[in-house]
Amino acid sequence: MNKNDLISAVADASGLTKSDATKAVEGVFDAISGALKKGDEVRLVGFGTFSVAKRKASTGRNPRTGEPMSIKASSQPKFKAGKGLKDAVN
Length: 90
Known about the structure:
This protein is an alpha+beta fold. 43% of the residues lie in helices and 30% in strands. A 3-stranded antiparallel β-sheet has the order 1-2-5. Strands 3-4 form a two-stranded antiparallel ribbon. The chain is elongated.
């Protein structure tokens, strides 16, 4: 399922027009992104938790040359599925 499929599914399930469903889906994505950017966690009970994980700086190797190279510290988005989502899948 891609973004357009998701928008169509939301429109069908909620009775919204496609343009209203697009605004709703975009609004949800923007809200989650904004909260993660601030360092907050987004908990959707029964669905899952979006959070930010910090990765430390490390040293790796260039696979082509074998030379050591430094990898900068970064923040990565993380999602942990909730019980309701896990049960729905299994």
